[in-house]
Design brief:
By secondary structure, the chain is of the alpha/beta class. Helix content is about 25%, strand content about 25%. The protein has five helices and twelve strands. Helix 2 (about 135-145) packs across helix 5. Bound molecules: hypoxanthine.
Amino acid sequence: MLAIIGGSGLYSLGEDFELQRQASPDTPYGETSAEILQGKWQGTELAFVPRHGSGHKIPPHRINYRANIWALKNIGVKQVIAVNAVGGIRADMAPLTLAVPDQIIDYSSGRESTYSDGLDDMVKHIDFSWPYSAQLRGIIIEVGLQLGQPLVASGTYGVTNGPRLETAAEVARLKVDGCSMVGMTGMPEAALARELEVEYACLALVVNWAAGIEDRAISMPEILANMEQGMHRVKALLLAAAKLVQQ
Ligand code: HPA
């Protein structure tokens, strides 16, 4: 089964999601961000969880990424498409761009970032050279082409701790490092999915130019407006991707 992890701006799949099961599982790592919803979205079975909770209550550094991924795995999820709102750094990442990153640089800190704590099992080192599932990325890119939705099919996602946005100098450094976009929730989610052998890809919606890329401050109302506008396209892509994943 496929799961969608909703990010900022995506707290539900809408009225055409037919809810069949709903659970707040007690995981060895604590509580999930919200109840895990299972049901059919226009006939396609999937699971959904909003990582910030149902009303954006949980900031990026406080999300229980371990509980969320563990709970999804536990109900039989084999693939995850994660939706993340990001700031654009690279020239092709203007606001409202949809992107499917292929790399990550993790600048976050202080997060519970592994199941391999050395407490009850051998330490497990995972290969993370290519952090996202090539197959799932391919599906998202393909449905983008099918639906005529332009997608940027590569990019490095720099993950900062937040919840504040970056300084212009921090973004300049991310750019030198090779980051194309910056967000706060890409990690440790992707690595945890890899540890549990869940296929994982990210669909990123650019909601602002990152700090200092434009010569003005970042406007929160503009971010919210872009989120609202972009999520319609995100949902259309997710639905088409979910149908392909099921086949
Ligand atoms: N920086 C970090 N996270 C974000 C941004 C940003 O500019 N926009 C949306 N999420």
